[in-house]
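Notebook, student rotation project (T.W.).
Task set for the rotation: take a protein with a known small-molecule partner, predict the structure of the complex, and write up what can be learned from the model alone. Partner molecule chosen: zinc ion. Sequence and SMILES entered below by T.W., checked by me.
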Amino acid sequence: MSKRSLEMLENVQLDVWDIIDELRFEYQHSSNFGINPTAFSHKNDTGDWVMSCCPNHAETRASFGISKEPPYHTNCFYCGYLGTLDKTVEIAFGLDDGEGIKLLLSDYILEETRAPIDVDGIINDGRERTTIPFLNESELSKFDNSPSKNKWTYDVAMSYLINQRGMTPHTLNTYGIKVDVDNECIVFPQRTRTGELRFLQKRKIGSSYQGAKFINEGSPIKKDILFGLSFINQLRTSKNRIKRVRMVESPLDVMSNYQVGIAAVATNGKILFKNQIRELQLAGVEIVDTFFDNDKAGWDATVQATNALVRAGFIVNQTLYPPQFSRSAKVDSNDLLKLGWLDKLESKPVSLLGYNL
Ligand SMILES: [Zn+2]
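Predicted structure of the complex:
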């Protein structure tokens, strides 16, 4: 813990309760996921501390406390680990020393509409402005030789996408989907609204893999990223401007909708962040049809996103699953694509759906 990070943390107001939810969500994509898959779950508030499962070892009870007050000390009552929140972020995400504080400041503070502090200035001593780093395009194009490098693994991945998921080669090409044959992953490029490559989302091929199903490479800052939004942004000033999008969870959901002619963006998870809402506005989107997965978590995501979008001034509809799918059945855009129903769904204004907004 550097003295400098401690000073920075002393001066910021963070909502530890909310941050733990986000840590838990993002931790699923961390290379450290295998250390303790339950890390940051079983959250409870003891007054001064928010307790959750420790990211340093496997456990199912909440031994790991994060102080609700600056500078956000952490203390594991099981393993004795002492630290601060920025170090926890580094452990959880496998980041280098000093990166945790940057992630916290840029990702959590910038989201305030009235920025209480000059984050850029703090990070760089006021000398220069910080920009979030992006990946060089060569980090993606290097996978172009995957078919010749390992044809068998490449074919397994493509067979999964085309035969099992119903993707066309045109769709895969449009969204720049690649195969990392060395790590046996399908690669989904995640871009900012303006098209910069922010991170690569890698999904393990098949089901017999060790550790996390998803591995991310590149910047850990993702709260402003919506998969697919860069295409919509490109059309913003053209006569083909897209004002209405379907909001889904995953890149495959986006591509499924694209294939039936519906413009879609993915939140890459179950939480719609304010930074993502701002990017939607900047891309010229005015109407959002929510279409999260049909399970309980997807329903919670629908309510959260609807509230946030309505407050931000969007017209919000909910795209409805066919009535034969109960909420307990896990169904998504890709399943409906394969059934031929994805472009035949009804969307209803949320005002007619009895939302408690
Ligand atoms: Zn511990």
